[in-house]
UniProtKB/TrEMBL annotation:
GO terms for biological process: CTP biosynthetic process; GTP biosynthetic process; UTP biosynthetic process. Its cofactor is Mg(2+). Its EC number is 2.7.4.6. It catalyses: a 2'-deoxyribonucleoside 5'-diphosphate + ATP = a 2'-deoxyribonucleoside 5'-triphosphate + ADP. PROSITE patterns: NDPK, NDPK_LIKE. The keyword Transferase applies. The keyword Transmembrane helix does not apply. PANTHER family: NUCLEOSIDE DIPHOSPHATE KINASE. Belongs to the NDK family. This is Nucleoside diphosphate kinase. Pfam families: NDK. Keywords: ATP-binding, Kinase, Magnesium, Metal-binding, Nucleotide metabolism, Nucleotide-binding, Transferase. The lineage of its organism: Bacteria, Bacillati, Bacillota, Clostridia, Peptostreptococcales.
Length: 132
């Protein structure tokens, strides 16, 4: 069994996609073990995105994630880390396959609705940031 972190970013919440996104995970029959709506602190965001410090989009990324509330949740099940990444789709809207969350609702590499941890180590690290 694996666990991974999913964030519905401020644009996903504002656009009313929370129910739709949660339903997609429920229909895959994975367990949702934690869920919260929160406005994160700048410290949480900096910790979460520390690997992107210095990148050209870093400041824009911080501003975007601070725009409003986020829905954070943890899913549990067999191979959920890779499964969630497949379900959310490529961050580049040109590459995001229809049927994936970004492929159905996204049109920007920067404002891309949703985040899912990209591996076991990042899932462990990120779950601690959002759920102590
Ligand atoms: P996420 O998967 O949460 O991880 C890093 C985030 O940086 C990404 O989603 C986007 O929101 C943002 N970002 C902005 N520009 C880029 C870019 N050119 N490449 C990758 N990520 C970007």
């Amino acid at each position: 069994m694996e666990k991974t972190l999913i964030l519905i970013k401020p644009d996903g919440v504002k656009r009313g996609l929370v129910g739709e996104i949660l339903q997609r995970f429920e229909r895959r029959d994975v367990g949702i073990t934690n869920l919260r709506l929160l406005t994160p602190t700048i410290e949480m965001i900096k910790e979460h995105y520390k690997e992107h410090v210095g990148k050209i989009f870093y400041q824009e990324l911080l501003d975007y994630i601070m725009e409003g509330p986020i829905v954070a949740f943890v899913i549990e099940g067999n191979n959920v880390i890779k499964m969630a990444r497949t379900m959310i789709g490529d961050k580049d809207p040109i590459k995001a396959t229809p049927g994936t969350i970004r492929g159905d609702y996204g049109n920007s590499i920067r404002r891309n609705i949703i985040h899912a941890s990209d591996g076991e180590a990042s899932a462990e690290r990120e779950m601690k940031i959002w759920f102590n």
